[in-house]
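Protein YIF1
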Amino acid sequence: MDAPSEFRNPGKRRSKKGAKPQLYEDTSMQPPPSQYGAPPGQGLRKLLRGIINENSQEGYDPSAYGGQPGPGQFPGAQYLNDPMANMAMQYGQSLAGQGTEFVHKNIEKYVSTSRMKYYFAVDTTYVLKKLGMLCFPFTHSDWSIKFNQDQPVAPRDDINAPDLYIPSMAFVTYILIAGVVLGTYNKFTPEQLGVQTSSALVWLILELFILNMSLYIMNLKTDLKYLDIVAYCGYKFVGMIVSLLAGMIFQSTGYYGTLLWFSITIAFFLVQTLRVKILSHPEDSNYSGGSKRSLYLILSISLLQPVMMWWLTGYIMFAK
């Protein structure tokens, strides 16, 4: 007699009865549902594809605003298509043009460009001869200035004509040599170059102001222009450079000896040169009285240069 079915497999039946009911469904191994009803990744791809399709329909060019340059464009050309960039560029060009025009107009008020070109019309031969004359002026005999149709000839054609090339180059060289000298004494700092430049410029401007005011107060009729005064006062930097170099090599003896020599030469040079510039109007009715004032002015300018040479080099040499 067959046993009932519930007794045929007692172990299986018991396992069913003994199993505990599952309280929740294990979803740790299943992918999360997508909000678009698709497997993960497909929904995001569909969203990006829709955005790109919409932009392409509206005519959007991804290279127009900072993207990759299109075919045939150089790098950075995409920024030129930006209307704001074009507007800023046009505004900047307009401001630059206005600033250049403003500078040119104001420079022409005080310094003529053509006049400045005259003072820099030099060549190598002129520079070498002028430096030799500044170092040894006693061998020079003809101090007159050449003219061409009531206008002085360019410095390259007349060694007696003043120039601004040698004073400007000598000024820059003086600043550099001063830094070298201070470096030998372990006193150099980057700020020293600025201090030296500012100090020399202030004293030079003060010197030019005093001399121009003296010419105005004395009411002297001369051919001396203010740029001529700048040139003549700037020639002293040549002697200052040599004095600093001599002091650096031969100590105080070389410095004082070289400074004394160039003090004599610059004073002699200026007396001979300014005598032609200032004492060139003997036809005036008050020439006798004006000549005395002119002589005083010439001597004052000539004797002031050695004092300035010592003042601008002495504190550098003895900065120990």
